[in-house]
Design a protein that fits this description.
The structure is a homodimer.
Chain A: H1 3-19, H2 24-40, H3 42-58, H4 63-69, H5 73-88, E1 96-101, E2 107-114, E3 117-121, H6 126-138, E4 142-146, H7 152-167, E5 176-178, H8 185-191, E6 199-202, H9 206-215, E7 228-232, H10 238-250, E8 259-265, H11 266-282, E9 286-289, H12 291-294, E10 300-301, H13 304-308, E11 315-321, H14 324-334, E12 339-343, H15 347-356, E13 361-366, E14 383-385, E15 393-395, E16 401-415, E17 418-420
Parallel strand pairs in A: 3-4, 3-6, 4-5, 7-8, 7-12, 8-11, 9-10, 9-11, 12-13
Antiparallel strand pairs in A: 1-2, 2-16, 14-15, 16-17
Helix pairs in contact in A: 2-5, 2-7, 3-7, 5-6, 10-11
């Protein structure tokens, strides 16, 4: 590991130990100091960002990506507002999750505690640099940030401004660190920093996430790959079904909770598919359908790859299924375990679908687009976990914590005959 | 991956999908059928076990390990009793952890669901084969068991008896599987079975656990390495301190929650250390002390390795520290994050120690030996997690589950202007 990397990782580790026991008030003061400093340094941030934007333009980056990269005074104001909102949220640390007095008198509590150092690998959106740092600080964690190299100038200034703001607070400035270096090596270093980094959250495409999962010795929380399905049941209200399908696919196609496949029960295919194809066409969506879908209109032929695809575009795969169970089997085979929806009037079908579909979220008569931390009322979101361990679905502040058991006695000893308390002088 | 391994892993996966939606009653019936079958097949199990014992003896295995390996009618009865106890426990699956009606009317619930297929790598105790299978089944998971090769004959028969018992129940018999093969290759196959296995729980020594953590692409829950500390504060009741120290070290030295180091505040070293050394000597414990401990009596000199050691024997490392903070720094540096205890009459010192020590459990005026699923009232325990992600400390049935979000609407759509419900015909 490079000296450079070790230096920031160790600084984050030390800061994490200092930060962990802090109560809410000093953390909130630090967050508000960061928000104010970002606004105060707007000119400097915009200047650094302009370099990133110019470089991206030189490299022929698509305009949509350049837009995600760009910062201006209004956007910096919005980023600062978001930091104030994180300060407004309750502190998860110290929450007593379980507790009891055991039969032997030991007082047992399970408390939320910070995870420690959280490594975050993310795309070229500089606002994530601040959002992620704020969520980590609020939950008592140090943040080790590895943003896209396309935003390196912006991120460097943003992190420096945050560190300088922290220097005037009780939160150690080392708690926010940018991973140095622009190459893939720095991602590798993060992945091998077991003992220095407690958890790694990769955000981005499937290939990044798969490579992190394969190579990381640091525990990973997978986020954000969404091959979401809408299943139109034999008992569906077809008007609702069309509305939900169009909303799930087309309202914002570039996000992970957008639908990528729809499945129609054969019993309603005659009535539903022609209407769906027309509505999708009107919404500018290209349909990649199986043979039975193709019987109802002109569609692109669907391959295995289409059913596996997270298009993130105005494309959707489609198939007719013989039963709810066949829909579930399709989702199990091709889905990514993010969000899958059923449209049905049948209580029994809804219950069965919810029970059989093994995904982070299951929607009944609602668009898949609601799987989101803000929609769920979390106030903030670091990502959407599609794994089963630790956190599943939208991750808010509690998902950035671990727990600690505390038990208090008065000299309690464990013996083969049960608990013995020699005397109570404690 | 070998065909043999893929066959059992796929069978477990299929069984897991069938098992997951089952409610409590059929799972409990299946567990009781297993318990009865084990007792009914006592002769066959004992015969297979005798082969393992004979082979272990031939290989010069220490008597203590042979004792852990041995099964007789009484022990099989006890194993069956333990299965009945798991049946008596509440079912974690389906528990609603959080839930609300969102401002837009969506009904949101977070439910406990099974993890899926749980791989367990464990030591040469055939009772674990049944315990682990029972805990997995109760929590709706399929178990993929990789026991020690020293118990292979016993495990083969135990798993066959369990599978045959399941064939007469609603739980698919494929839900309990023994990983075929005796070599380390089968451990490697388990570690690379991402997509087939949802979580891997290695039980055993630090070297096994480290190699699994390094090499596994399946998410891992680390268990059981315990370098536990007892810190005797300046304000300690020294009578209690001696009792707790001796209990934590000597009551059962071979377990992970036994103490491996004690740290004494310099302010009470004169009064405490000579008494502690005498009491430890009387209990047959060898002390590996630093220079300041050595000033009070004859001890082995302590090296770095002693402070890092999980002795699991009648040995203990010891050091004098200048302050509570120095004790915490020692624990952070050398500890394994399992259980650390403070003995003190001071509320402030207790509060500070609890806040600063970053371990799965912190004990105040109590022996470290209480960090245990049964002592905590869990009814059963699959291991003690020393990692921060997903589960920390003793793991009972809820720790063998994931969660699923379910939201139900009546045609809820997400728009840039907020939620829209076109009509309510759902």
């Amino acid at each position: 590991m490079s000296e450079e990397f070790l230096k920031v990782a160790r600084a984050a580790r030390e800061a994490a130990a200092e930060l962990a026991p802090l109560p809410r008030a000093p953390k909130d003061r630090a967050l508000r100091a960061i928000a104010d400093a970002l606004v105060a340094h707007t000119a400097e941030i915009v200047e650094a960002n302009a370099k990133d934007v110019a470089q991206a333009r030189e490299q022929g980056t698509p305009e949509a990506m350049i837009d995600r990269l760009r910062l201006d005074a209004r956007r910096i104001q919005a980023i600062a507002e978001a930091v104030h909102q994180v300060a407004d949220l309750p502190d998860p640390v110290g929450e007593v999750i379980r507790g009891s007095t055991l039969p032997n008198g030991l007082e047992l509590r399970q408390l939320r505690v910070p995870l420690g150092v959280i490594g975050i690998i993310y795309e070229g959106r500089p606002n994530v640099t601040v959002d992620a740092a704020a969520l980590c600080l609020k939950s008592g964690n140090a943040a080790l940030l590895r943003g896209s190299s396309s935003a390196y100038s912006s991120n460097t200034v943003l992190v420096r401004v945050m560190q300088e703001a922290l220097e005037r607070t009780e939160v150690p400035s080392g708690a926010v660190q940018l991973v140095p270096g622009l190459t893939r090596d720095s991602v590798k270093e993060l992945m091998r920093a077991r003992g220095l980094v407690d958890v790694l959250i990769p955000r981005g495409g499937a290939s990044l996430i798969n490579s992190v999962v394969e190579e990381s010795t640091v525990p990973v929380i997978e986020t954000g790959v969404g091959n979401c399905h809408v299943y139109i049941d034999a008992d569906a209200d077809l008007d609702l079904a069309v509305d939900i399908l169009i909303n799930a696919k087309a309202q914002r196609p570039s996000v992970c909770n957008a639908a990528e496949t729809f499945l129609v029960h054969a019993g309603v295919a005659d009535a539903f598919v022609p209407r769906a194809l027309q509505a999708l066409k009107d919404a500018g969506v290209t349909v990649h359908g199986d043979d039975r879908i193709a019987a109802y209109g002109e569609v692109e032929p669907a391959t295995e790859d289409d059913f596996l695809a997270e298009y993130l575009s105005l494309d959707i795969a489609a198939a007719v299924v013989g039963s709810l169970e066949e829909a579930v089997a399709h989702i199990r085979r091709y889905g990514s375990g993010h969000t899958d929806a059923i449209v049905t009037r049948s209580q029994q079908a809804a219950r069965r679908f919810v029970s059989l579909v093994d995904s982070a979220a299951v929607a009944v008569n609602a668009s898949t687009r609601f799987t989101d931390g803000a929609e769920f009322g979390f106030g903030a979101e670091i990502g959407i976990s599609t794994q089963k361990l630790h956190a599943r679905g939208p991750m808010g502040l509690p998902e950035l914590t671990s727990t600690k058991w505390v038990y208090t006695g008065e000299g309690h000893l464990r013996t083969s005959a049960g608990t013995v308390i020699p005397r109570s002088g404690a």
